[in-house]
Amino acid sequence: IMDVCHDQVNEVTRYVHHKLNPSSAGYQHGVTRPSFITGDFYAGKNVNNLYTKVQQNNTISKILGMDASPFFNDTIDVYLARGHMAAKVDFIFGAPQKATFLFVNAAPQWQMFNGRNWERVEDSVRRYASDQALDLDCYTGIWGVSTLPDVNGVQRELYLAFDENNNGLIPVPKIYFRVVIDRKSRNGIVLIGVNNPHVTLEEIKKDYVICKDVGKRIKWVSWDKENLMNGYSYACAVDDFISVVKDLPLEDLYTSGLLGVEELTIENIPS
């Protein structure tokens, strides 16, 4: 049901590939959410424990050399959740929905972003496949490592674990992305969200926007696009995006134009 590209050394999944079709919006409702499982990955770590609110606060406090509690606020969903890549309800039936609860299909995602703009991206892509009767390839992944300022104001990369040489594992990504390509027309788009509610708009534009934003020309995604707490979001042409993000099956991502973007086409079929 999905292809997973997982880096076992750094304990990070780069992307998950799955498909959506016109029936995807009619998914089975009410399927219970099982616990996430590690499978044969993560070198025997208790990954569930690493994601607990107490432990993530402890880990990030150590990284920053100070009490990280001001960066968390349960009442407004400012904590790190197990953020799906292939979404549970991207699959129609209960069994494949439950199969999405693998840690290799997740990354640390701030819950306010997870439950707001990113959920709207997921829902909008399903609806678009249904409304336009499209078969879509989706490559959902993460890129970069988010930072927060330490006790001295120096930006430090965030991880949920470390190896014996103090190399970071299970990174908190800078961005979540979904490459969406229509299998018939080969038109494509990349929908991107910033996974850091603590950065300013200036910091986002400097460090988190990595390709030309065409998102304002997209009318079918129901996001609050420039809301920083909900996850500042943008969209790019596939070729523009993959000129920066290389951990993808690049030969499968050729496009003939932009998908669902008003009054703009970009020819980028390789010769």
Structure, described:
With 271 residues, the chain is of the alpha+beta class. It has one domain: 3-Layer(aba) Sandwich (Extracellular Endonuclease, Chain A), CATH 3.40.570. Helix content is 22%, strand content 25%. It contains 8 helices and 13 strands. Strands 1, 2, 5, 10, 11, 12 and 13 form a 7-stranded mixed sheet that branches. Strand 10 and strand 11 form a beta hairpin. It is globular, with a radius of gyration of 18 Å. The model has no long low-confidence stretch (mean pLDDT 96).
Could you outline the blueprint of secondary structure elements for this entry?
Blueprint: E1 3-7, E2 12-20, H1 47-51, H2 53-64, E3 80-84, H3 94-99, E4 106-110, H4 111-114, H5 117-131, E5 136-143, E6 147-149, E7 155-157, E8 159-162, E9 168-171, E10 175-182, E11 187-194, H6 201-208, H7 228-231, E12 233-236, H8 238-242, E13 257-258
Parallel strand pairs: 11-13
Antiparallel strand pairs: 1-2, 2-5, 3-4, 5-10, 6-7, 8-9, 10-11, 11-12
End-to-end separation in angstroms reads 32 Å
**CATH class bucket:** Alpha Beta
β-strand number: 13
What's the number of structural domains? 1
Describe the main β-sheet briefly: 7 strands, mixed
Low-confidence stretches: none
Query: In percent terms, what proportion of residues is strand?
Result: 25-35%
Rg computed from alpha carbons, rounded to a whole number of angstroms: 18 Å
Helix % is: 10-25%
Helix/strand/pairing category: alpha+beta
Number of helices: 8
* Shape-level CATH architecture: 3-Layer(aba) Sandwich
CATH topology: Extracellular Endonuclease, Chain A
Mean pLDDT: 96
What string, H for helix and E for strand, traces the elements in order?
A: EEHHEHEHHEEEEEEEHHEHE
Shape: globular
